[in-house]
Design goal:
Elements lengths: L16 H21 L7 H8 L5 H13 L3 E9 L5 E7 L10
Helix pairs in contact: 1-3, 2-3
């Protein structure tokens, strides 16, 4: 992962920033490890959230996926799957790896 910031400070939590940055970096690392573990499958954010069994909000998983995509670890596929509320969600896979061709 690059030296880019992991936490997106949208609430101006200045004093807590180092703690929040560390937590976000840990989440990014957990999401990256999940995609490596499930290789060669692609995952949607809600599938990653469920597989991680975390209390972190889905938005944290989406942030981690965006960070990892920005850092060149993951790439968005052209695949989609149905999310928990019936809406389609895009899927991501490890960058440079073969992409899954079927929906789960």
């Amino acid at each position: 992962m690059s030296g880019n910031y992991h936490h997106h400070d949208t609430t101006r939590a200045r004093g807590d920033l180092p703690k929040l940055e560390a937590a976000a970096k840990t989440q990014d690392e957990a999401v990256a490890a999940l995609f490596k573990r499930y290789y060669p499958l692609s995952l949607s954010p809600s599938q990653a959230h469920k597989a991680l069994c975390t209390k972190a909000p889905i938005t944290s998983i989406r942030r981690a996926i965006n960070n990892l995509t920005r850092d060149g670890v993951l790439e968005k596929t052209d695949q989609q799957s149905k999310g928990p509320y019936g809406m389609r969600e895009c899927r991501w896979v490890l960058k440079g790896e073969p992409k899954q061709t079927k929906l789960l």
